[in-house]
Amino acid sequence: MWDALCRYTSRVHSITQQYNSASMEALSSILLSCPLAPASLFPNLRQLTWVADGTCGVVDFLRMAFVPTLLVLDVVIYSTSPAFLSVLSSLGTLCPRLQSMTLSYYPLADRLVNKFSPFIIKPISKLHHLRALEVWDLGDQGIRHIMELQALQSLTLNLTVSSTWEKRSHLQLPGFRDLHSLTLSINKFEHACNFLAALEVVRSRDIKIFFCPQSQAAARGSTMLSQFLDILQERCDNDKLQCFSLLGYLRIALTVASGVFTSFHTFRNITQLDIQEVCDVSVSDMELCQLVRAWPKLQILKFSRYVTIDTATVVPTFHGLIGLLRLCPALTSLALVIDTTKLDDIDLINPSGGCFNTCLNNLALGNSLIDSPVNVALILSGLLPRLDRVNLDCWNIIRIYDPSQGIQARKEWESVNSILRGFGVLRERRIEA
Fold first, then answer.
1. Containing H/E element for 5?
2. Cα–Cα dist 302/278, whole Å
3. How many CA atoms lie within 13 A of 290 on its CB side?
4. Which DSSP string do the residues of 285-339 spell out, in sequence order?
5. By C-alpha distance, which of 433, 325, 341, 305 is closest to 385?
């Protein structure tokens, strides 16, 4: 019977375990009775996803699952034990070919993070084939080990429970010389500022910041955002950075001027700028054109799905949109809140004066002001002849922010899409004729 079982387990390439530790302990008891070496049960395992506690029965199974063929490991920890930490500390020896590893913790286990870190730092330094790593902050020593991983291309660091970067460090770390992607999760901009300030250089094509504030005054947040972007500009390779995203889990009452992002003008190869949920960007028509003028290769621009339109926040009009499309001819995706009610000097038949964009296929205008769907559809059709609809998926989020506005305004934008579809049918018939 064991011979038959081993013939099947040798064909297992992926294992996923979520929460049910009781069944896993029962399985561990069965597997422990195997007369063969534990590692031989899953000799060809490639991927392991683990969301469970660190009880002894679970640990026994992990010892069998940590094999040299393992390439992908995803572990979520919500409890621990000495035996579990012992297995983690052997990861570098048991799974030397790992290429992707995610180590995260259940939110209730954040107080245990400092206990995990010493058992993880040394094994990580032995994973010379590791290409993608997601982990919490491991402190100065752990960051140094990560920087020595020559094959590493993608790095995600969770700095939300870190005390390492509460203050500016006097240490100067070598930095990251050749990353494809760097992602930081923070709840204070100070953490990101102090972390980047400790690095000599950051050479990455893609940088993402996930910001989930606990409590932060609007004025303080705006100041720290400006400081963070300045430090980012100092540390990053101006030629290599192509994509920057500032994303939020929770919208905060923070309005920033477009001038905050002028430090990004040095990044001439920017193709994607994504600012979502973190703040309202106040930008006029002229300021919008001045901002994007430095990025002729821009393909994706997203400035929030919802903006609180008041005296403190300025949003562009169709004039700004026309200028944007002229300055960024490669634009394929745009999310921008504008005021479509201001149509002064706009020719509804030929709004762009003969200059139009045929690349843009994804347009989200969020909670843009609207009073005439017909006029809006005419202008959009003239500017973007291949656009068949405005993306309305964002209204699922907008209704949370402003329930009273959501129903009527969405109907207006649905009317715009209906008219655009009609224009599309006419174009097709004209082409066929």
1. helix 2-9
2. 12
3. 13
4. HHHHHHHHTT-TT--EEEE-S----STT-----HHHHHHHHHH-TT--EEEE--B
5. 325
Closest by Cα among 89, 87, 76, 6 to 41: 6
Helix (H) or strand (E) segment spanning residue 227 = helix 218-235
Residue 144: enclosing H or E segment and its boundaries?
helix 139-147
Token pair belonging to 89: 């500390």
Q: What is the pLDDT of residues 90-136, one digit of tens each?
A: 999 999 999 999 988 776 556 667 777 888 888 998 999 999 999 98
Q: What DSSP element (H or E) covers 229?
A: helix 218-235
Please give the Cα distance from 426 to 405 (Å, whole number).
Answer: 32
Do the beta carbons of residue 92 and residue 127 sit within 8 Å?
yes
Provide the whole-model pTM: 0.88
Structure tokens at 255: 């309005």
3-state secondary structure of 200: coil
Nearest-angstrom CA–CA distance, 113 and 402: 38
